[in-house]
Design goal:
Blueprint: H1 3-13, H2 22-35, E1 40-43, E2 49-52, H3 54-60, E3 72-74, E4 91-93, H4 95-111, E5 115-122, E6 125-135, E7 141-150, H5 162-169, E8 175-179, E9 185-188, H6 190-196, H7 200-203, H8 208-211, H9 214-228, E10 234-242, E11 248-259, E12 265-274, H10 276-290, H11 300-317, E13 320-328, H12 331-338, H13 340-356, E14 363-368, E15 371-379, H14 382-396, E16 400-402, E17 405-407, E18 411-417, H15 425-441, E19 447-449, H16 452-474, E20 477-486, E21 492-503, E22 507-509, H17 515-521, H18 524-542, E23 548-552, H19 555-559, H20 563-574, E24 581-586, H21 587-591, H22 595-607, E25 610-616, H23 624-628, E26 633-636, H24 638-641, H25 648-664, E27 667-670, H26 676-685, E28 689-690
Parallel strand pairs: 18-19, 21-23, 23-24, 24-25, 25-26, 26-27, 27-28
Antiparallel strand pairs: 1-2, 1-7, 3-4, 5-6, 6-7, 8-9, 8-12, 10-11, 11-12, 13-15, 13-18, 14-15, 16-17, 20-21, 20-28, 21-22
Helix pairs in contact: 1-2, 12-13, 13-14, 18-20, 20-22
Domain PAC: 235-287
Domain GGDEF: 319-452
Region (Disordered): 1-22, 66-85
C-alpha cells in the first residue's frame, strides 16, 4: 500500500470511535488492519481466525474471516532446467498452514505468553508465526494477535515484540504498553499516551507506579509482586490513575508476564482500559439513589446513614445525636393557591434556608412531601437541641416571594435525642415524627421534644390507623341515616348518611374518633368512595318515597380530580337518579380558590346532583361562592340552633341566614333541632327544613318514609 494511503488510514483511526456508526467504525478498523504491510490475523481462544488482513489473505489464500478460497494453497516452487524460476507447481492443502496457525494460538492461550510457532511454507517463501495473547478485564486471554514474518526476520518473542506491537497494537482502543519488571515503560501505544496526557517519550521516562493514584499504589505493588513471584498468571484490577497535570481517570488494569525460553520473567505486558465514563455514570446513579430529586438534599436512606455515623462518633465523644423533623405548616394551602410548580420552588428554597442555618457537621435531608430531617451529631442536651430548632424556624420564616405574592412560611419541629450510642436510627426518626405531630396539634410554628407520653399516644394512633386500613376489607364500616324533615308537615324529605366504625375492640366509633387519622394517613379518599357507593346503593333500594340521600365529602376528595366521575359511576351502577343524591361540602372548600375544586362542583351540578354547603355560617367571611357556584342549599350550623329561645343574637343570626337562603332561592336546612320550642321558632322564622334528635337519631338502617 502506498505510504500516503497508510498515513491517511492512520489519521482516520485517530478519530473517536464514538463518533462513528458501528458499521462504519468496523469498516475503518478493517481498513487499518489491511493497511499493515505484514500478514496479521486475529484469532479466538480456539485458534479460529476472526479477522485476517489483506497481506495475510494473499499469503494464505483465505477470506477475511479465515475460510479457504479454494481447496489448495500455493507451495514453494522447485527450480528445474526447463521450468522458469517463478513458475509455481505442487499445491499444498490449505488446512495445513491453518492448523499450524491454530497450534501457535492455542500455545499462546495456554501459556499466556508470546509464542513462536512452526514455520509455514507458502508460495515461494517460509513465514514464521509469532502469537501475542490479549488479556481481558477478567485476567483471561480473550484473543490472540498473530504476525507472519519472513524466516530469519522474526522478532525475538521476548524483546517486547516491537514490530508486532507497533503494527497490531498502535491503534488499539485500549491503552497498551510493555514495561520492564520494575514497571518502567519501554513501549506505549497512542491510546495510553492520550489517556494519561503524555507524549510517548515522556511516558517512557515513567513507571507504572508513577501513574497509579497514590491511594491505590500499595495495592497495585502487592498485586504485581504476586505476578512476579508466579503466584498468579495475570492480574486485573480497577483503580485510579493520575496523568499529566494531575488529571485523574478510572481504568481497568490487566498485567501479564513475558517469559524467556527458560520461563524466567522478562517484561510486563500492561493494558489499561479507560472506564471513567462508567464510574461517572455510577456516581450519578449513586447520587440519584441517595438524594432527593427536587431539592438535591440527602434522602431518607442517606439521612439514616448520617444518624448511624453520628451515633458511632458519640461513643468517643459522649455527646448525643439530635434528630429534628421539620414540617412546613399549611403547605397544602401554598400548593392550592400557587400551583405545584411554585410549591416545589418554595420547598427547594426552604431546604436551602434550613441548610444555611445548620452548624458544621449537621445534615439536612428531605424525606418526602413537605418534611425535612435534620441530623445534629454533636448535641449536649435538650436546651442545645431546642436552640437549633428555633434557629431553623427563624431561618425559614423570612419572607418568600411566590409568583404574585409573598409568604412567610412557618415550620413545626419535632425533636428526638439519642439516650445512648446504641440508639436505633429508625426509632429516632419515628420519635421526631411523633413530636412533630404533637407540635402541629399544639398550634403549629412551634417545637416539641418527644417523651414517653407522646410515644404512647403515637403508638395508639398508629394502631388505630392500621385497624382503619383493614376496616373496609373486614366489613366493620357501616352507615347510619338521620332524617331531614319538612318543618311544617314533619314529613321526611331526605336523610343524611353518617359513617360509623364498628371497631371490634373499641365498639361503635363516631367519625370524630377516626376521620383525622383517615385524613393524615391518606385513607379519606378510599373511605369517601365507600360511603358514596353504599349510600347510593341503600337509597336506590328504598325507592323514591324515601326522598334523597345526603353524603358528606371531605376537602381532600373534592380538591383531587375524579370526584364527579366517581359520583357518575356510582349513580350508573346503582340506578339512583341524580336528583336523589345531595353532596355536602364544607364552607372552607367553597371559599377555596382551587380551580380543581370549582370544576368538580360544576361537574356535579351538570350531572343533576345537588350541592349543599355544610356548617354554613361558621366561616362567614365571603359569600361570593353562593353567587358564583351552583349551590342548591345551605345547612345552618347547630351552634346557632342551640341558642334559639334563650339567646337573642343566635335567633337573629338564624333569621338572617334563613332570609339569605330564601333571597337566593336555595334550600335552607337547620341542624341540631332538639326541642319543640326550637322547631316552632324556626317555622316562625320561615325555615323550611331541619334535622336533629327531635325528628330522629341516626339509625343503621334506612327506613322508608
Amino acid at each position: 500500500m502506498p505510504r500516503a494511503d497508510l498515513r491517511r488510514a492512520q489519521r482516520d483511526q485517530r478519530r473517536s470511535a464514538d463518533e462513528l456508526p458501528v458499521a462504519e467504525s468496523e469498516a475503518r478498523h478493517r481498513a487499518l488492519v489491511d493497511a499493515l504491510p505484514e500478514p496479521v490475523v486475529l484469532q479466538d481462544i480456539d485458534g479460529g481466525i476472526i479477522l485476517a488482513n489483506l497481506a495475510a489473505r494473499e499469503a494464505l489464500g483465505i477470506t477475511a474471516d479465515g475460510r479457504p478460497r479454494s481447496a489448495t494453497l500455493p507451495r514453494q516452487s522447485t527450480r528445474t532446467a526447463d521450468r522458469p524460476a517463478d513458475h509455481r507447481v505442487t499445491l499444498r492443502p490449505a488446512v495445513e498452514p491453518l492448523d499450524e496457525l491454530r497450534a501457535g494460538a492455542l500455545e499462546a492461550v495456554a501459556t499466556g505468553h508470546v509464542t513462536t510457532g512452526p514455520s509455514i511454507t507458502v508460495g515461494d517463501g517460509t513465514l514464521v508465526a509469532t502469537s501475542l495473547p490479549l488479556v481481558g478485564d477478567d485476567g483471561r486471554v480473550g484473543a490472540v494477535v498473530t504476525r507472519l514474518g519472513a524466516l530469519g526476520a522474526t522478532p525475538d518473542p521476548h524483546d517486547g515484540g516491537e514490530d508486532l506491537f507497533r503494527h497490531a497494537m498502535q491503534f488499539s482502543p485500549i491503552g497498551f504498553g510493555v514495561a520492564a519488571l520494575n514497571g518502567r515503560f519501554l513501549r506505549v501505544n497512542r491510546k495510553l499516551c492520550r489517556m494519561l496526557g503524555y507524549r510517548a517519550d515522556e511516558l517512557q521516562e515513567r513507571t507504572l507506579y508513577d501513574v497509579v493514584h497514590p491511594s491505590d499504589l500499595e495495592e497495585t505493588s502487592v498485586q504485581v509482586g504476586h505476578l512476579l513471584r508466579g503466584d498468579v498468571e495475570a492480574i486485573t484490577m480497577e483503580r485510579r490513575y493520575v496523568g499529566h497535570g494531575g488529571m485523574q481517570l478510572w481504568g481497568t488494569l490487566a498485567v501479564c508476564l513475558v517469559r524467556d525460553a527458560q520461563g524466567r520473567p522478562q517484561q510486563l505486558v500492561v493494558q489499561i482500559e479507560d472506564v471513567s465514563e462508567v464510574h461517572r455514570a455510577q456516581e450519578l446513579l449513586t447520587h440519584m439513589t441517595l438524594h432527593d430529586r427536587l431539592s438535591g438534599l440527602p434522602n431518607r436512606t442517606l439521612v439514616l446513614d448520617r444518624i448511624r455515623d453520628g451515633l458511632e462518633r458519640s461513643r468517643q465523644t459522649g455527646r448525643r445525636v439530635a434528630v429534628l423533623q421539620v414540617d412546613v405548616d399549611h403547605f397544602r394551602v401554598i400548593n392550592a393557591h400557587s400551583g405545584q410548580e411554585q410549591g416545589d420552588a418554595a420547598l427547594a428554597e426552604i431546604g436551602r434556608r434550613v441548610q444555611r442555618a445548620l452548624r458544621p457537621g449537621d445534615t439536612v435531608g428531605r424525606i418526602g412531601g413537605d418534611e425535612f430531617i435534620v441530623v445534629g451529631p454533636d448535641v449536649g442536651d435538650e436546651t442545645e437541641a431546642a436552640a437549633l430548632a428555633e434557629r431553623l424556624q427563624d431561618a425559614v420564616a423570612q419572607p418568600l416571594p411566590l409568583a404574585d405574592r409573598s409568604i412567610s412560611p412557618t415550620v413545626s419541629v419535632g425533636i428526638a435525642l439519642s439516650a445512648s450510642s446504641e440508639a436505633d436510627p429508625l426509632s429516632l426518626v419515628r420519635d421526631a415524627e411523633i413530636a412533630t405531630y404533637r407540635a402541629k396539634q399544639g398550634g403549629r410554628n412551634r417545637w416539641e421534644l418527644v417523651d414517653s407520653r407522646l410515644r404512647r399516644d403515637a403508638l395508639e394512633r398508629l394502631d388505630l390507623e392500621e385497624d382503619l386500613r383493614t376496616s373496609l376489607a373486614t366489613g366493620e364500616l357501616e352507615l347510619h341515616f338521620q332524617p331531614i324533615v319538612d318543618l311544617a308537615s314533619r314529613n321526611v324529605v331526605g336523610r343524611e348518611a353518617l359513617l360509623r366504625w364498628n371497631h371490634p375492640d373499641r365498639g361503635l366509633l363516631a367519625p370524630g374518633h377516626f376521620l383525622q387519622v383517615a385524613e393524615e394517613s391518606g385513607l379519606m379518599v378510599e373511605l369517601g368512595h365507600w360511603v358514596l357507593l353504599e349510600a347510593a346503593r341503600v337509597a336506590a333500594a328504598t325507592g323514591p318515597d324515601a326522598g334523597y340521600v345526603s353524603i358528606n365529602v371531605s376537602p381532600t376528595q373534592v380538591t383531587r380530580p375524579g370526584l364527579a366521575a366517581q359520583v357518575e359511576k356510582a349513580l350508573s351502577d346503582t340506578g339512583l337518579p341524580p336528583a336523589r343524591l345531595m353532596v355536602e361540602l364544607t364552607e372552607s372548600v367553597m371559599l377555596s380558590s382551587a380551580v380543581g375544586a370549582r370544576q368538580e362542583i360544576e361537574q356535579l351540578d351538570e350531572l343533576g346532583v345537588r350541592v349543599l354547603v355544610d356548617d354554613f355560617g361558621t366561616g362567614f367571611g365571603a359569600l361570593t361562592y353562593l353567587r358564583d357556584l351552583p349551590i342548591s342549599g345551605i345547612k345552618v350550623d347547630r351552634s346557632f340552633t342551640a341558642g334559639l329561645g334563650t339567646d337573642q343574637p343566635s335567633e337573629r343570626i338564624v333569621e338572617a341566614l334563613t332570609g339569605l337562603g330564601r333571597g337566593l332561592g336555595v334550600d335552607v336546612i337547620v341542624e341540631g333541632v332538639e326541642t319543640e320550642q326550637q322547631r316552632e321558632l324556626l317555622a316562625a322564622l320561615g325555615a323550611e327544613h331541619a334535622q336533629g334528635y327531635l325528628f330522629g337519631r341516626p339509625e343503621p338502617v334506612l327506613m322508608p318514609a
